[in-house]
Structures are given as structure tokens and as C-alpha cells.
Amino acid sequence: MKKIPLFLALMMLLMVSCTKDDSLTKDGRETIKMSFSLRTAEPTVEGASTRSTDTLSVDDSGVENLWALQFENGVFIQKDYLMSVNLSSFMLDLVPNASGQTSNIYFVANVGASAFATAPASEAAFQAQTGAIVSEAACLLTGTTKKFVPMSGRLKNIEVKREGNICSSVLYRLLARIDYTYSVDPTLSFVVKKVRLCNVSNAIQYDSVITAKYPADGATTQTFTYEVAPNATTAAPKTLTFYVPDNRRGEGANTAKTDAKLKIGVTGATYIELVGYSTGINGGDEITYTLYPGADAYNDYNISRNTIYKMSTNIVGISTLTDARFKKAATSNCYIVAPNASVSIPVSRANKSALGTQLADVTSGWSASIYWQTAAGLITVSDADKSGGCFTVTAGAATGNAVVVVKNASSDIVWSWHIWVTGYNPTAENETNNGFVWMSRNLGATALADGTATTFATCGGLMYQRGRKDPFVGTDGSTTVSPYKALPIYDASGTLMTNVSTSLTWPTDGTPTGTASFATTGDVVKMAILGTTAGSQIPYASQLSYSVKYPLLHLFGWAGSTATSTPAQTIVGGMSSWGGEYGEGKSVYDPCPQGWRVPSGRKVSNTFVSPWSTWTTTQNFTASTFAALKWKTANVYFYPAAGIRVYSSGALYNVGTYGSCWGASPNGADGYNLGFSSGFVLPSNPNNRAGGCRVRCVQE
To answer: What does the pLDDT look like over 415-426, one tens digit per residue?
Structure first.
């Protein structure tokens, strides 16, 4: 074979290098071509022993495109982008170093052409630069036929020169891969519905070396949820694969590392939730099993790039008492659902009240439907999960409120739930006053009150009789002059409702009447009277069953969900309707969502102290459809003066001039609430329990 002298080969290479038009950088420095080769590092595998990411569609060792960034003395001097690359040998345009100088060269693969379209200001800036992860799909680069995992590598202190040899480096995956396999014993009355991957970092750091805790404490994270097909009658395992960024949280408190049940988390750690529900005639409870990936099954909470975590779960039994990884979800009468999101609601709550067992079998013999909604198409309802004792509510793009009901085989309503469709997250937006953590808005409000422009239609929230779980709508915010207009509501078909709508039923006793002329108020609510006169009045003993069966029926004489006799019109009778009194928890009738309750005035002792006791400074406002006050002038959030519903009729009243919020505490035959108007505030105001007031929930 004919040999070509080395100097001739180099000359030919240089001649080829100089044929490119862009052989100069923007500052006039000459570029040369330099040869490189790369290989992908073997991943570390942790762990002994579906649809998140389809692993058949991912080439997690391939490179679709490549960026190279050159820095000299920490200063950026050149970048090159290859739309395709053969890792075994490729050429890059780089700037030759002056005598005695070297370069640091960083490689970033599979991040696309736009990642470094704008050059980093410096090497330090690049090392801190991240790529946003707005969805799970954004973790991977979508190529022509496959998806690719972002990677990076580096060469440090390299002298870039014409006579250079081929330089080699290693690419490390910027993501970890979690392979999770689960199975459920087919004899177990438990069906898996979804898998959630929680506390996922929202960014990828491009630099290939991370040594400290990352991301920083308190960084924003996100959750990915995957609906899965219910487990069949066999114990065949299912496998899901996730690609996730670094999340290094260190170790926890289970230093003995002998019991995997004690791996129950540290702040900010990535974790997997297996969410399902118990089945059978006594089922309907949502059960969540939580586990934390890491380098071991006991105490490590580090998710590290270029690592594969293999995890498996075989569920043969459920114990929420002896295994802290299992939790039974708390139920409530209100569910916050973000727009375009959904929630599964167990119907077993219909059997938790003083009405006893209303559904003998939670897996059949009932139907779920929309009772009313504040906008046509606000939500949809499906009972496809009936075999698990649940129904599903899915929200559309709009915000608003709705009530959904479950009916028995006789078409009688046996329970109902308020669906609050909002992007509001009360755990992120709240304020602390008087020893309570308060929501920033009234229950059901879809906007913050601001005292200047936001009308009661959105900031007012819903209205409740004290001790009752079901809401009434408030004003539409169009007027502060009687007759006050009610917020319009729609039935399941999207038809505007009236108080004679065929979708509504009313009792034949109690003489139900409209709160006022529907033609002038648009108010669908009707009023009926509680008393001892047969036929014309509803018996006190029936007030709970009527309040459940007829959610839009305002009950004159109402004393509370636990008041079921004439003597119960006392502090004893209705005291515990919402709970929270004398140390007990929220009751089954509390209207607030999970983790929140109506504020109690006896949180600390039997001596009543108003939850608003420190609100003593009066303020003034001009009557309007957005009038509102702050608790303290330094506070952020307002209370709207959105009016009340009159106890004796249920009619809207004092809109734009008066505001009121219920507390859980009774005051004789009345109930304590907050009352305020321009020029006065009553933090311990006694009010008839049948009156309709707002609710400002506090954290449990």
C-alpha cells in the first residue's frame, strides 16, 4: 500500500479546513477544523432485583445533533452546531489558541438548534444555564424516527492547534431513567387507576458535573400523571419508564437501612404515587402507595443523571396503619379542580352522615350527574369507574362552580359535591392571621377581590346556611339596588335553569316558594319552612335529609345538619354541624376542600374567641359591586361586601354594602360570623343559622 507522508496528510487536511466561507469568527479570529470522537457513557444501574415513556421509541444512547462551545480563560470565543453527527469521527470549527493558552470545550447533544442560538456570556454563565422542562415530553428531543436523551460532555485545557490529533471525550446523559414495575394480587380488592411522578425538577442543567444538592431547596417542581388500564384478574406486572432531570436531596433519617417501609421521604425528593381505589360493596376509598427512587431502597433520595433506577412493587395487601407508604385519601364535600383537569370522587361519603347507609353497594345501583353549573360545559361527569365506587369529574377550560349529585335507583339525591373549577392553589396563596392560615378568597371565588374593579360575580364566592354542606350562588354583580340579580346557573345540558326547570325536584310539603320573582332576580333557589305543622311545614327531624335531597332548597328555621328535633334549635343541637368545636376535626358536613375547614372560635379552649378577633379597625368604602375591605391595612387580601341571603326567605340582600363570613361556632340558637360594612366591623356577630353567608376556609 502506498504511504502518504504525514506532513502531506496534514497539509491536505488544512487545505480542506480553509475552504469554508465562515472561517473567521465575528471578532475576526480565524477558525480551523479540528477532529473529535465521542462515546456515550454506560449508565449506572441502581436497584435490586404503561405509558409514561415508550422505551421502544427512545434511543437513549444515540445522538441526533450536537453543540460544541469553546471558552478561553472563561470567555466564550466560538460555537459550532452539527445537525447530524457520527460520534466516531467528526470535525468542528474552533478558534486556535495563542501560544501558552488552552480552551475548555463543552459538548451538548440532543437539545436542538435553538438551545444556544444566543451564545452564553461566559463559561460561568454556561455552567449555570438550564433548559426548561415544561412537560414530560420536553425532557426528550423528538427526532425523525426516534426520541433522544439530552447529553453533555467536556474537554478541559485542550490546546486547539492546526497540528492537533483527534480528541476524545465522553457524553453523559442529562436525565435519569426510572423503570418502575408493579403488580397487584388479583384476589385483592384494589384497582390501580393512575400513576403519578411527583416533585420533578422543571429544568435540566447542561453542565455535566453536579456535586451539590440540586435543585436548590424551594425550587419549583411539577407532577406528571398517567392514567393506566385497571389491573386485570391476573397479577401480570406492568412497567412504566420515566426520564427525569437531576434531583439530589441526600439521605434521610432511616440510617439503620433495615426496613424499606421507613423510606417515607425528605423535603423536595422525587417520588412515585400508585393511586387506586378499593372495590367491593364497602369500597370506594382512594388509596395511594408512595415510594421514593434512589440508590437504595431505604434512605437514599438522590436522582442522578446517567443513572437507571429499577424499582418493583408487588401489592398483596394494604395497611394504612402499619405501613406509612399507604394512605387513604381524605374525602370532602368540595373538590378544587384546575381547568382541563379531572378528579375521581368516591361515593362512599354518602354513607358517612347521620343518614346512615344510603348506598348498600357503592359499585352499582347509583348514577352521577351535574346538578347545576355556572357556565354551560363547565364540567363533564362520568361514572365509568363505578366498579371502584367512584365517578370522575373533568373540567373544561373555563373557571366557575358546579354541584354534582349521586342518585340512587329511585332517582333520589343521596349526596352532592361542590366542584370549584379554578387555578387557585390555596397552599401556595394564603395569609396567616390570628393563629389561622386563611385562604386568600371566599370559598367558590374565581378571582381575588380587589376593592376597585373585580365584581362579585367572580370574587364574591358562594353562600351557605350555617352547618350545611351545599352552596347557593350569590349575586351576578350587576347591581347594588334591589331586586338583586343572582348568578345564572345551567343544567347538565347547558340550558339556563329556572326554579321550574324539569331537572329540579322540590318537596311536596313545606310549601316551597321562590325567593323572589325569577323574572326580576333570575334566582333559582326556593324556600321552605321547617316546623311542626304537618303538610305546610317540614318536620325538624327531616331537615338533614331534605337538605341533602334538595340542594337548592333554602330552609327557613334551619338549625344545622346535626339538629334533627325542635329542642335542637339550641347550642347543643347544631353545635357540631361543621365540627372544629372543642378540639374535634371537621365534620362530614363541612363545605371546605381537603385540608381546609370552616374556622372555629374554640380552637384553643372552650372559651369562644372569634377567628377574626383582631379585626377591630373600621374602614370605609363606597357601595358598589366590587366593594371590599381588608382585615388589616397591611394585609394583601380583601373581603368582598357581596351581601347575604335573608334567613327567612333566602333572598339576596345588602349587595355591595355588607359582607359576612360564617364561623363554625354556635351562639345559642344562632351562629357566630364576621359582619362588616363601611364604617364598622363585627368580628363576633351573632346571626340566624338559616342565613346565607360566605365561607373563608382555614387550613386544618
So the answer is: 999 999 999 999
Q: Which pLDDT score is estimated for 387?
A: 78
DSSP string of 504-571, one letter each residue: ----SSS--EESS-HHHH----EEEEBSSSTTTSB-GGGHHHHHHH-TTEEEET---TT--SGGGSSH
> Which pLDDT tens digit goes with each residue over 72-115?
999 999 999 999 999 999 999 999 998 899 999 999 999 999 99
At 155, the amino acid letter reads L
Tell me the residue type at 50. Answer: T
Q: For 401-445, how does the pLDDT look when each residue is reduced to its tens digit (9 = 90+)?
A: 999 999 999 999 999 999 999 999 999 999 999 999 999 999 999
Common-topology check for domains 6-173 and 334-421: yes
- Strand, helix or coil for residue 348: helix
In the numeric block, the cell 378571582 is attached to: 447
> Going by C-beta distance under 8 Å and a sequence separation of 6 or more, which residues neighbour residue 305?
172, 173, 174, 175, 176, 208, 210, 245, 246
Q: Is the Cα torsion angle 209, 211, 216, 221 positive or negative in sign? A: positive
- Residues comprising the chain, all counted: 700
CB 413 within 8 A of CB 381: no
Q: What is the DSSP string of 230-256?
A: PP-SS---EEEEEEE--EEEEE-S-TT
- Ramachandran area for residue 503 (φ above 0: left; ψ -120 to 50: alpha; else beta): alpha
Q: Burial of 554 by CB count in 10 Å (0-12 exposed, 13-18 middle, 19+ buried)? A: buried
Number of other CB atoms surrounding residue 351 within 10 Å: 17
CA–CA separation, 373 and 489 (whole Å): 5
Give strand pairing partners of 629: 639
**Right CATH for 334-421 from 2.60.40.1080, 2.60.120.200, 2.50.20.20, 2.120.10.30:** 2.60.40.1080
Question: Does domain 176-328 match CATH 2.60.40?
Answer: yes
* Residue 157 to residue 563: CA distance in whole angstroms: 81
Report whether 132 contacts 203 (CB < 8 A).
yes
**pTM of structure:** 0.72
With beta carbons less than 8 A apart as the criterion, state whether 415 and 407 touch.
Answer: no
Asked if residues 67 and 115 have their Cβ atoms less than 8 Å apart, the reply is yes
Q: Residue 614 contacts by C-beta under 8 Å, 6 or more apart in sequence?
A: 433, 434, 631, 632, 683
- Helix (H) or strand (E) segment spanning residue 6: helix 6-17
DSSP assignment letter at 360: S
Q: Cα separation of 353 and 545, whole Å?
A: 10
* 3-state SS string for 75-134: EEEEEEEECCCCCCCEEEEECCCCCCCCEEEEEEECCCCCCCCCCCCCHHHHHHCEEECC
CB 672 within 8 A of CB 666: yes
Q: Could you please state the CATH topology (level 3) that the domain comprising 6-173 is classified under.
A: Immunoglobulin-like (2.60.40)
C-alpha cell recorded at residue 614: 383582631
Which stretch of DSSP H or E encloses residue 457? helix 456-459
Preceding omega of 215 cis (within 30 degrees of 0): yes
E strands, 447-497, are 464-465
What residue has cell string 436523551?
149
DSSP 151: E
With residue 190 as reference, give the H or E element that holds it: strand 190-201
